[in-house]
Amino acid sequence: MKRERRLDEKLPHYLEALRELVAVPTVSARNQSIPEGAETVAAIARRFGLQADLHYFDGVPYVIASHRAGEGRPALLFYNHFDVQPEDPLELWETPPFDMAEKDGKLYGRGVCDDKGHIIVRFAAYDLLAEELGEVPLNLLFLAEGEEEIGSPHIREFLREKADLLRAEGCIWESGGVTSRGRPELYMGMKGVMSLELLARGPKMDVHSSLGPIVPNPLWRLVDFLREIKDADDRIRIPDFYADVLPPDEKDIKALSEGLEEIEELKENLGLEAFLRGAEGLEAKRRLFFEPWVNINGIHGGYGGEGSKTVLPSEARAKLDIRLVPNQKPEVILEKLLYYRYKSGYSDIEIEVSGGVEGPAKTPIDDPFVRLVADSAEEVYGEKPLLIPIAAGSGPMAHFREILGVPIVGCGMGYPGSRIHSPNENVRIEDFKKAILHTARVIEKFASIS
Known about the structure:
The protein is of the alpha/beta class. It folds into 2 domains: 2-188 and 363-449, Zn peptidases (Aminopeptidase, 3-Layer(aba) Sandwich); 192-245 and 292-358, Alpha-Beta Plaits, CATH 3.30.70. 35% of the residues lie in helices and 23% in strands. It is built from 13 helices and 20 strands. The protein has a 6-stranded mixed sheet. Helix 3 (116-133) packs across helix 13 and helix 11 (368-381) crosses helix 13 (429-449). It is globular. It starts with a helix and ends with a helix.
């Protein structure tokens, strides 16, 4: 209880640090305020007693903060990002997105959950332990980047360059949270993602739609090709798309079998009568976490404003993302798509990669580091955590697994109503505090067994 009391005493200090960080509008999609964000993270880290330096790769700033306990001691790595999604649509925010507000036990602002709040959670955990113990007997490394929301295009090469500096025996990933019932969730992997843009061309200029019977319409051309990607049974038709998929093992299935009520609540919260192909319970979770997929994010062309405009556009575009699971390689899937485009008679449609490409990653669920983080969560939250072998979302985790060879677990303070990437992003203050205590217990436990 002493630690909890000290956390309550220091909470205003931690919230002020988060307010300072939220105030910097680090929107990577607009390349906005990224250097300022890096400087702010480093300055906060130093105030918390950590050494912090800025490292640049191809002009892109990264922050590496650290506590050095001495040669020969093991290291624990924390990965986070300080860039955020755009605040649009601004009119749907109830409070200014970059001026953190506190209301009804919650904190509101862009990045309070994804992921600036988690940066402060990690720093605060160290601060609590350093004050309590005098000296934390473990090497701690904190890496924060400013490009995660645009696919972390430089981090792979940055990790290669700084691998010796960032070597660790365990890694806590950027974020996580609790279920609707307050049960902590831990995840050990992430799907890969590859974002694509498709372009179909028609006449060299927009023309009157009366010419439709004789002039090719690129929107129809694009829609026809998109129809070829998925069949009526919601299976992807790209040849051998599923060939390399690694299915869940017995331990994964056992983990997926817990918390089945959460997947049913998701369906209800989304206002759906049924998931695709009527999936329910365990099968719905298996597909969500272990099945690859192709998403259409948007189709653009012609006129989309108020009223009508009888136009046949000169070009049409579609944005897609492909979600990948362990053993699938982005470059192989892209080659299969390009070949399928040719074989299907749509070689005129242009396809290009439009963002960062991230492969899938997974730490075995029975890794000792997973057990340590899970045991720590149970001690803090008072119940066993829900283990998710691989999260449905994506991030640069595969690069850390490949280059650093480190076991990775994601945990944090989000909850189903956090609205990340949406207006009114928020976290509950009690979840913020619990995440600090959990992180502190992970550090303490890791130091004791190492």
